[in-house]
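My main concern about presentation is that the manuscript never shows what a single data entry looks like. An entry of this sort, consisting of the sequence and the corresponding backbone structure tokens, reads as follows:
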Amino acid sequence: MELRHLHYFMAVAEELNFSRAAERLHIAQPPLSQQIRQLEAELGFQLFHRTKRTVRLTEAGIVFFAETQKIMRQLENAIQIGRQTSRGELGQLAIGFASSAVHNVLPTILQAFRTAIPSVKLQLRELTTDQQLEWLQQGRIDIGFVRPPVEKDGLSSKVIFSEPLILALPETHALCSQERVSLRSLSHEPFILFPRSLAPGLYDPIISLCQQAGFSPILAQEATQMQTIVSLVAAQMGIAIVPASMQNLQRSGVVYKLLQETTPMVAIAMIWRHNPSPTVLRFLEVARQVTTNG
């Protein structure tokens, strides 16, 4: 039995007329009658009562018709699901992100993707950059938002957001009265820093900036999340140089200040494995549209 036999049967069962069914199927009537007889022979039971004037379904034909309708609906559903999946419109995506991405580009991209492709389920994982690289290679996430550079075989990356650095001070700090703060005035201040091993793309520009001002920062505390760094600043454990978008984190006890010196730009990059799935490609497409238009 072939799928075309079921299509032929459905047409005759719906029309109850071989001539109209043949016309609908764009075939001649004799071959259609022959195909139905072949189907009945293979099934081992009669589908239609035929006279010169009428065609009607047998009791077995009525049952077979109902079940065939279910099969055709399932087939259409399978075709639709296959098409949607091939276009990246179904399935799920596991997305890793550095904590600081929450305060700049990530929410806009997620909102745009959910609006454009609502049938794809998103699983979000807050991970450091080095964790994302590991999880991506292991297949535990599909896309990451990291602090570049990314130097791993088998991975692609694209910078989608860049921003300058600013200063985070406890609100009681004497430098809060200044509109812009000179880096040299920070040479004796205790710094709260992000560990270099987790994100050299953020750590190195901060250290380089301080060294250009003639000092190496005094390490008071390390923290692996940007929110923690800002909270420690609020607790007067030290000061911090952070990406400018951290101003979007409303934290009492912290004042953000611009630096007098021009700072390097720090970036957020998307990373993904080579040969991405259709769903990953759709996400990348939406993200590029959002960041380009933005």
Observations:
- Residues 107 and 273 are 22 Å apart (CA to CA).
